[in-house]
Amino acid sequence: MAKIMHVQTVLMVDDLEALKIKTGESSTKDALAKAVHHFLECEYTQVEDMWAKKLEKVVKRKREVI
Question: Could you list the pLDDT tens digit for every one of the 66 residues in the chain?
Fold first, then answer.
């Protein structure tokens, strides 16, 4: 059984509105939940140079197609 904890944070209003737009959620709770879930699941979270890693993956896919 999963444990649930209520948490709070302070954010700039502009940042919160941008997060809602980016996640496609209208509520603060859902936007934050979606963002946290993505951060925890994203394979690039622990990568120092995310863009180099993404580019490497694209190049690898293109080579497999050829």
Answer: 889 988 899 999 999 999 999 999 999 999 999 999 998 888 776 767 777 777 888 888 878 776
Q: Name the 3-class secondary structure at 42.
A: coil
- On whether the CB atoms of residues 13 and 21 are closer than 8 A, the answer is no
Q: What are phi and psi of 10, to 5 degrees?
A: -110, 125
- Exposed, middle or buried by CB within 10 Å (0-12, 13-18, 19+), for 31? buried
pTM score, whole prediction: 0.64
CA dihedral 17, 23, 9, 16 (to 10 degrees): -10
